TrEMBL record:
<protein>
    <submittedName>
        <fullName>Peptidase C65 Otubain</fullName>
    </submittedName>
</protein>
<dbReference type="InterPro" id="IPR038765">
    <property type="entry name" value="Papain-like_cys_pep_sf"/>
</dbReference>
Length: 362
């Protein structure tokens, strides 16, 4: 019920009617789901942002609705000349929230798998390691649980920033994974607890019943043209080889420059600190999923260079050599993965060389 507030002033303004709206607070609400909890969470975050008046780009809404209606024609709109925003608003009013999230999560899963298949080397974790035998066909099924690679793929497909807060027992502060952090659309925040995703939403009551809705049984005539798993693994292997060769080339080049006296330990440290301060890694724009919190583990998985640490007693000279080797390794790795542009790093090296040359002439 609107309240009437009297505004005083020299000119005796008449009473102005303003709606007294209680500020809604967000909370993490379990959407349920076995295998599809991550996609349900993104679907809930997407709809919650829309209902909260967040400005979602019309082309994103249109793309989601087009694919969604292809799977669920009953969710199509009969509105003539309606905008994507109007169509989505009408859909949220016509269909129960439990059904909408349940079916929209299926649509978002398909969009994520499409992205994974187009760029498999970027999301290698979806296909290798513990998920090595998971084919695209299996990924498309609502019962298949998928790791962070699918969430990252969906963030890129939707052009949405997604933040996952990994909650572990005994740890007070959650680890935060950010995907497509620079996207212009409103963000989605989720918790990850024991492989189960839970979204943060404002409209808590509207989403309360979603968790009791089972995954949809989808019968579609749509034909998927996914590459087979062997083709995907071949693409990943080719990219792994390219990264390894580029890394070795960069490491050899930097080592030669140190041996020639063109770079010192201080120069290498300055290059790394300055380069990483403005890198895509710190800006949340990583080229390969799995490098959000550093590239070392990711790169070791590619090169299979995981070795047991050895306890060493180093002299001052050996220590300096060890630090130089580590800095060279870190720079080569960061450039190979794409955290630091090679042209920028070597431009900085040229600047160092030029400064040293001028100081010698003086």
């Amino acid at each position: 019920m609107p309240t009437v507030r009297q505004h005083s002033g020299f000119f005796g303004h008449p009473p102005v009617r303003t709606a007294a709206v209680a500020k809604l607070r967000s909370a993490f609400v379990n959407m349920g789901g076995t295998g599809d909890c991550g996609f349900r969470s993104v679907a809930a975050g997407f709809i919650d942002n829309f209902l909260s008046g967040q400005r979602i780009k019309a082309n994103v809404i249109a793309r989601v609705l087009k694919q969604h209606v292809a799977y669920f024609p009953e969710h199509g709109s009969n509105m003539i000349l309606a905008t994507p925003t109007e169509e989505l608003r009408e859909l949220t009013r016509r269909v129960s929230m439990a059904e909408l999230i349940q079916k929209l999560s299926y649509t978002l899963r398909q969009m994520a798998v499409n992205e994974l298949c187009v760029n498999p080397a970027r999301y290698r974790g979806a296909f290798v390691g513990s998920h090595e035998n998971t084919s695209p066909d299996s990924m498309r099924k609502p019962s298949t649980w998928m790791d962070e690679s699918a969430i990252a793929a969906l963030a890129n497909a939707l052009d949405f920033p997604i933040e996952v807060r990994v909650v572990e027992k005994g740890k007070e502060l959650p680890m935060r994974l950010q995907y497509n952090a620079g996207a212009a659309n409103p963000g989605i925040v989720m918790q990850l607890q024991n492989d189960h995703y839970i979204p943060r939403v404002v409209h808590q009551e509207e989403f309360a019943a979603v968790r009791h809705k089972p995954a949809p049984v989808v019968r579609t005539n749509a034909v998927q043209h996914d590459p087979n798993l062997s083709e995907i693994l071949a693409v990943i292997a080719t990219e792994d080889k390219r990264l390894q060769e580029e890394f070795e080339s960069l490491r050899h080049r930097l080592t030669a420059m140190v041996a020639a006296g063109e770079l010192s330990k201080a120069d290498l440290l300055k290059l790394y600190v300055k380069g990483m301060a403005t890198s895509d890694y710190l800006q949340g724009r990583v080229q390969y999923v799995g490098t959000e919190h550093g590239t070392q583990h990711f790169f070791e998985a590619i090169t299979q260079a995981q070795k047991e640490p050895e306890a060493l007693v180093l002299t001052k000279e050996q220590y300096d050599e060890h630090i130089i080797a580590e800095l060279i390794h870190a720079l080569a790795r960061a450039i190979s993965i794409g955290d630091m542009p090679a042209e920028r790093v070597f431009a900085q090296i040229d600047e160092v060389d030029e400064v040293r040359h001028h100081s010698v002439l003086r």
